[in-house]
Every structure is written in structure tokens, then in C-alpha cells.
Amino acid sequence: MENQQGPQPIRCKAAVCRAAGEPLAVEEIVVDPPKAYEVRIRIVCTSLCHSDLTFWRMKDFPGIFPRIFGHEAFGVVESVGEHAEEFAAGDAVVPTFLGQCSECVDCRSPRSNMCSRYRFAVRPGMPRDGTTRFSDAQGRPLHHFLGVSSFGEYTVVDVNHVVKVNPAMPPSLACLLSCGASTGVGAAWKLAKVEPGSSVAIFGLGAVGLAVAEGARICGASKIIGVDINPDKHELGKKFGVTHFINPKELGEKPVSQVIVEMTDGGADYCFECIGLAALMNDAFLSSREGWGKTIILGVEMHGAPLSISSLQILHGKSVIGSMFGGVKPKQDIPIFADKYLNKELELDKFIRLLTC
């Protein structure tokens, strides 16, 4: 909403969580105008990421309430603040939890996607001044989540956390590029740099793990091994490029790493851990090939347990890589993913079928 004095506060609906683990309630809220270096976005499509659930249950810091969750979304710019010349009302955009200022040493380097000027943090407010742009019907402040807060009809996001996308992208598919699909595809394409003919093992075939499989397929991997205790993931994985399936519950006393080493004649070139368990991270590392095997960690350890690996195997040439957002630089790489979809290289439609089945 804008008049001659500029953007005005907007009253709209949002799903608000007022305490850890409590059901979200749809309430009327007020969304303030964007300040300098900010844009206000009308949310068209949003989805639920497991990170939303993790912080929804969290009672201690940074589990701050009341809060508006949601960070995987697509929307249209409604209004812009000062110094937001990159955007204009009507732009099709996706907000991202990871920012890119494009000016700091990390943003300018191809070796990192972690902006060092505006570092990633789970803040209760906006990244520049820490204040909120949300209040409830009684005027009480509501906290942000990961700089996005997409579980509302409108939100305000810093310009470093907003990416323009081709308006030809279907909203429900552009939404997936905001987090999960980009994380998995990027981990294979951007971070691991999977080569044609290589072998890949993926531990956990959830949405992110299946996105890794999709990325490995696009990169030309010849053997994509999915590891999951859910037998239904066998047939599902095939749709995303998985060529072999292992259910650890069906192996008896045989370690999954031994099976993978035998299947790949020495170990997988690339192993991806997509669950968030230290034991599985170790299994992935043991499944990787001596000499050049890489283990990429995408899952956040859900119990806070440390990762313990053999220093001898490190000396034998294996490596472990941490992955934040799959190594994706949002403003640079998300438009590439959108173009790959429009060119029928990246098959995002099957993720929608996965989520609705």
C-alpha cells in the first residue's frame, strides 16, 4: 500500500507461533513499510522446511517467540525502501535465508557463499538494525525468522536476501529454489562438482537428498546410490536419478559402508549426508573412496553430537566438506537454476508431486 508519502503499514494475515511447539494461529498483523535497503514482498507461495519445525520446537535461544516462521517462498515486490534500486514493485522474487552483498571478500570469491559483511545468524529481527517490521493487532512486536518470515501474506526482507527470478517460473516451483531444491542440487553441482561418470552415495532421501540426486543426475554421475530405511524411497528415488538403493535394515550385520565400497569397487567418489546424525556422517565418510573421496555434510546434527573420523583415513586422501545452502550464491546461482528449469534441464515438477503424494 503506497500513497504520496510513500509505502504505508499493511494489515494482513499471518500464521503466528507464540510459544515453542504450540500450534500456529492465523492472526491479523501489521507489516511496516520497508526501511532503507529493504523490500516488502507479497507472498504468493510458501512451503514448509524441516528447519521451520526444528526452531518451532526450540525453547531456548535462538528459539524466540512470538514469531512468524517460513523461509522457502516466492513472491512479488510490493514496495521498496531507499537504496533498493535493484528492485521495483512487481518484480518476481524469491527470498533466501542466506544473504549475498556481492561486495565483501567472500561474496567476490568463487570459494565461498558465506557473506562476511552480513554474516548468517538466526536473528529475531532485521539483519541491519535488529528491529522487527511485524506487530500483532494489539501493537505488540512479532519476531522474524531467518530474515524471511514467509508464513504471512506480506513480509519485509533485506535486499541482500532477495533474488529476482524469471517471471515465467511457476510460483510453486520458484518457491523450491528459495531453499531445499537449491541446497541439494547446488551441493552436487556447485560444491562437490560431481563429474560425468562418477559415483555418488546419498544418505537420506528426503527432499534435500532427492535434490542431491537430481543434481548428480544433471552432472552426469553414472552410479547414484540412495541409502534410506524407508523402503518406499526405492521407487521414489528412481524418479530423481537414483540407480541403486540400500536399506540398512536389510543388511543384517553388514555395515552399509562395506556394501557401498563393494558396489563402487573401492568407495564412492562423493558421499552426501542429508539427515543430520553423526553416526551417518561417519558411515558416509567410511563409504568414500581412498585417494579422492569427498564427504559433503548437508544435515545439521540434530543432537549436537560431534563428528569423529579416523585421522588415518584423512591421511589416505579423503576429505569432509561442510555445506551451507549447497554452496549456492543466491543472487548468482538461483537465476541459473531457474533457467535450467525453463530449458528443461532441471526437473522441479517432480518435487511438487513428491510433496503432494
Automatic annotation (TrEMBL):
Source organism phylogeny: Eukaryota, Viridiplantae, Streptophyta, Embryophyta, Tracheophyta
Ranges of residues in domain Alcohol dehydrogenase-like C-terminal: 207-334
UniProt record similarity statement: Belongs to the zinc-containing alcohol dehydrogenase family.
Assembly and oligomerization: Homodimer.
Cofactor(s) the protein needs: Zn(2+)
Compartment annotation: Cytoplasm
Domain Alcohol dehydrogenase-like N-terminal stretches: 37-166
Enzyme Commission identifier(s): 1.1.1.1
Pfam families: ADH_N, ADH_zinc_N
InterPro entries referenced in this protein's UniProt entry, alphabetically: ADH-like_C, ADH-like_N, ADH_Zn_CS, GroES-like_sf, NAD(P)-bd_dom_sf
Gene3D superfamilies assigned to the protein according to its UniProt record, in alphabetical order: Medium-chain alcohol dehydrogenases, catalytic domain, NAD(P)-binding Rossmann-like Domain
Catalytic activity: a secondary alcohol + NAD(+) = a ketone + NADH + H(+); a primary alcohol + NAD(+) = an aldehyde + NADH + H(+)
PROSITE patterns: ADH_ZINC
Record GO cellular component, one term: cytosol
Keywords (A to Z) from UniProt: Cytoplasm, Metal-binding, NAD, Oxidoreductase, Zinc
A GO molecular-function descriptor: zinc ion binding
Protein name: alcohol dehydrogenase
GO BP term, pick one: formaldehyde catabolic process
